[in-house]
């Protein structure tokens, strides 16, 4: 198991390709060097290679997905009007449980760093939401609020930078546990993965309701959902592509990844509804924008007509 946004599948695939170490003999025969070095997976055929590449594309899409919303919130300063706090809460909860699953199942360093980056971007989105909500509801500017926000983000950055090293250092301790303890820890890690998938699935409903309630998608970036759709779609494809290369039971492989497949495909379907909202409410967004732009042009004309009538 890996992160819920990018669940691992290499353990099942690679296990069949690893050979028992012998003197003067490499552990992985005919494996792709860069994948073996970066992901510690033994990839020996085109199906597994395509699966890994598509999986990396999925991870890359998820890494970039929250950045457009961060910029959109900074640009318009109305994130509390456009974003649902429930969406941010469930997204953050999903990443936290995914992080716990990574720790308990001793995932690869690249997966640990990835999920830490997810948490970092979640904290930025939540900090922006709280900052602009307090700022827009306050009658006067407060420089203290801005400095508190900067200090919070700085402290969170330092903590998150230290977390990957701590997890990697402690992973050896988990690996040396007894088989019974190791199995219980692994089961707990899989439970965390199931919870993460549920959190990701639940995250879309508050945002769908908020968009429907406002009849608008203003204040949210569609790239957030578009990149998430690409990430979920490519993840599902990476799991399907690797099936012909499996030497073990395909049913067991599917069952191990069923929770994340349901979560990914479920979120993908819900994001289609979000896409429909962006299309349907696009006219409302443009009408609001044109109204706001026309106000300063009308007021001087009205004032001029009143002055002429008084003369």
From TrEMBL:
It is found in: Membrane. SMART domains: CTNS. This is Lysosomal amino acid transporter 1 homolog. It comes from Etheostoma spectabile. Its main location: membrane. One of its GO terms (cellular component) is lysosomal membrane. It is a multi-pass membrane protein. Belongs to the laat-1 family.
